């Protein structure tokens, strides 16, 4: 529960930072032909829309329509405030049209980079705060790279806050804190108190996530006082819930209930924020259940259902199930769906390494089965709970091992891969002549078939020769590299040590360590030792992480592997992944790539995807110029696998099917 609440606290404070500071920023390029009178007219029109009491979805439609009616210079001047208004409404009242609108404006603003940059920032905010999709948010932020040279301090402030939120959602608290500190530094430089409060609030949320509430509470109180003093009820609502949860974590329940009651009072005034309401009601339901007040616990758990239905993610729904099921167990006879959901939650949060929630799910399943006198099941879940508790207690990061595994989500629409099939239709017009002509026709057909087969065989032989020649050339190049590494690096360092010994000198441990590291580096170049040391799955994670950090390419993984392949197949598939990713980096001009493995029937399937520019597969293979593609095809054949390559302007997909038993 603590992870849920801390995440929401950070999410909302980041929202404050992004949407308020970003909208105050001046465009990076001054729009042309915009008079002050025109600006005043637009400002008044927007103020008039704000004052209207109308359905939120109608207001979104009116804002979008009004923006599209503006001249191009006025769009450049008012993109930020209008995009901000759209976001704020969609955040409280989910609307599926806002994100497509941002994407459409990016396409329609090819000659206005300041608008394009704002659409990408808005898309990133939508993915992070509304959809809770860190990977998609990161892709939008990476797409901002060409525009960063024109960023001013205020835009960088918003940009750093979004980057920080991305790392936070991925469980990398240290990087998240680093980027918030960067944003705080800019806020102080700009003397922007609102932005400063938001960034410090984000930092406080990170402290809460790491169970350092003693550091978080003073900052949260300071932020809440600011919002209350400025009568900003929407943000005060967020602050009250966040501060209440911190006090509850420290078991200071009088202070916690004081702020929970203030939050409920703000809700009665009309403040609406479904994400925060989910946290508020779930927290209160959990607390009242622990205090044996079942009636109030069920009351707040029931209140939680409406915001969950409106905006809740699958993770939020499963968190709710974890904490509400013990209460509903006392009034429901059939808990089949709840128990099923809790088991799903264990699998999901285990995959995400969120052991706090896994622990809670195991304990609550234990309680459910214990109360229903199913003691064997209860004992099993209690053992699992105890095991996770021991794992958590041994960790240095205050019980947190939360590193979310990234899911592949390209910025563009999901690529539709068209199968390239050539159909040759031939019609015979010779229906009258059967005798000699029929015999001649058969002879000609036989000749054509034989000729076609010979051509195909020669082509395959030529391609095989090209591959072999490339393999030999690459082998010679590799031997040359090894010789240079041994002579220029390792050999020279050994020679230095020899002279040191000869002159009566001492060899320090650091020199020996450097030699060992050189030997390891050379060894890694010859054979991927990590396969033997940490196994296939972790080795693939390692190379993807290494290349992501080294190259300007976002690489995500979705690996389902439990040792189905032998060592030789693991090695060849590992090399295929290396070759495929190297090709993406060299040629694809892609922003993102994905490595996936899964079981399909009796086959083990491996997939390499990217969202690059694509290429003509057949002509590239026919040219013999791509050793990398031939290497992938040949390595697949070597392990009885079958590789297929599909490519279009939306990206490339390489799929390898390997029989598990064969």
From TrEMBL:
Cross-referenced CDD domains: HATPase_UhpB-NarQ-NarX-like
EC number(s) on file: 2.7.13.3
GO cellular-component term (any): membrane
Any one GO MF annotation of this record: ATP binding
Pfam families noted in UniProt: HATPase_c, HisKA_3, TPR_10
Catalyzed chemical reaction(s): ATP + protein L-histidine = ADP + protein N-phospho-L-histidine
Intervals holding TPR repeats: 157-190
Residue stretches making up the Histidine kinase/HSP90-like ATPase domain: 568-662
SMART domains xrefs: HATPase_c, TPR
Alphabetical list of PROSITE patterns matching this protein: PROKAR_LIPOPROTEIN, TPR
Residues that span the membrane, as ranges: 429-449
Keywords of this entry: ATP-binding, Kinase, Membrane, Nucleotide-binding, Phosphoprotein, TPR repeat, Transferase, Transmembrane, Transmembrane helix, Two-component regulatory system
PANTHER family with a match to the protein in the record: NITRATE/NITRITE SENSOR PROTEIN NARX-RELATED (PTHR24421), NITRATE_NITRITE SENSOR PROTEIN NARQ (PTHR24421:SF10)
Protein name, per record: histidine kinase
């Amino acid at each position: 529960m603590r992870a849920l609440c801390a995440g929401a606290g950070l999410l909302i404070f980041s929202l404050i930072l992004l949407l308020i500071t970003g909208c105050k920023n001046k465009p990076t390029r001054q729009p042309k032909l915009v008079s002050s009178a025109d600006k005043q007219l637009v400002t008044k029109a927007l103020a008039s829309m704000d004052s209207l009491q109308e359905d939120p979805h109608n207001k979104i439609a009116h804002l979008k329509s009004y923006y599209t009616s503006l001249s191009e210079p006025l769009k450049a001047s008012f993109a930020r405030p209008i995009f901000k208004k759209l976001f704020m409404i969609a955040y409280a009242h989910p609307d599926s049209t806002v994100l497509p609108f941002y994407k459409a404006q990016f396409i329609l603003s090819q000659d206005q980079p300041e608008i394009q940059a704002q659409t990408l920032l808005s898309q990133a905010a939508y993915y992070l705060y509304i959809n809770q999709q860190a990977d998609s948010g990161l892709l939008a932020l990476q797409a901002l790279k060409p525009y960063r040279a024109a960023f001013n301090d205020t835009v960088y402030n918003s940009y750093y806050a979004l980057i920080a939120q991305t790392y936070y959602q991925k469980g990398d608290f240290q990087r998240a804190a680093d980027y918030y500190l960067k944003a705080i530094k800019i806020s102080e430089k700009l003397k922007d108190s609102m932005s400063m409060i938001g960034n410090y609030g984000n930092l406080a949320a990170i402290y809460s996530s790491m169970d350092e509430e003693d550091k978080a509470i003073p900052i949260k109180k300071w932020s809440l006082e600011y919002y209350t003093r400025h009568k900003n009820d929407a943000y005060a609502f967020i602050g009250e819930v966040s501060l209440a949860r911190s006090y509850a974590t420290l078991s200071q329940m009088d202070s916690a209930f004081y702020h929970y009651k203030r939050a409920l009072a703000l809700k009665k005034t009309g403040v609406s924020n479904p994400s925060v309401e989910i946290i508020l009601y779930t927290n209160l339901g959990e607390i009242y259940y622990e205090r044996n007040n079942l009636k109030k616990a069920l009351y707040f758990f029931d209140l939680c259902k409406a915001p969950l239905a409106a905006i809740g993610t699958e993770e939020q729904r499963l968190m709710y199930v974890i904490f509400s099921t013990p209460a509903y167990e006392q009034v429901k006879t059939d808990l089949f769906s709840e128990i099923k959901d809790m088991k799903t939650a264990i699998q999901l949060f285990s995959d995400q390494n969120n052991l706090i929630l896994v622990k809670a799910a195991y304990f609550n399943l234990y309680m459910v089965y214990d109360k229903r006198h199913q003691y064997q099941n209860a004992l099993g879940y209690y053992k699992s709970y105890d095991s996770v508790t021991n794992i958590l207690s041994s960790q240095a990061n205050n019980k947190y091992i939360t590193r979310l595994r990234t899911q592949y989500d390209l910025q563009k629409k999901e690529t539709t891969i068209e199968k390239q099939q050539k159909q040759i239709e031939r019609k015979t017009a010779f229906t009258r002549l059967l005798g000699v002509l029929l015999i001649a026709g058969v002879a000609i057909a036989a000749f054509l078939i034989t000729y076609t087969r010979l051509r195909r065989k020669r082509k395959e032989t030529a391609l095989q020769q090209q591959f072999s020649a490339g393999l030999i050339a690459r082998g010679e190049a590799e031997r040359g590299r090894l010789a240079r590494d041994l002579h220029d690096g390792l050999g020279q360092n050994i020679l230095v040590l020899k002279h040191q010994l000869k002159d009566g000198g001492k060899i320090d441990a650091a020199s020996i360590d450097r030699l060992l590291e050189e030997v390891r580096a050379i060894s890694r170049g010859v054979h991927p030792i990590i396969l033997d040391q940490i196994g296939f799955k972790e080795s693939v994670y390692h190379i993807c992480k290494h290349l992501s950090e080294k190259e300007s390419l976002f690489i995500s993984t979705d690996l389902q592997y439990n040792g189905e392949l032998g060592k030789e197949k693991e090695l060849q598939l590992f090399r295929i992944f290396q070759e495929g990713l190297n090709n993406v980096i060299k040629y694809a001009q892609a922003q993102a790539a994905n490595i996936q493995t899964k079981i399909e029937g009796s086959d083990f399937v491996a997939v390499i995807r990217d969202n690059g520019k694509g290429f003509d597969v057949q002509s590239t293979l026919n040219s013999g110029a791509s050793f990398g593609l031939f290497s992938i095809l040949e390595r697949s054949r070597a392990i009885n696998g079958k590789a297929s390559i599909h490519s279009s302007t939306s990206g490339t997909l390489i799929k390898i099917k390997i029989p598990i038993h064969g």
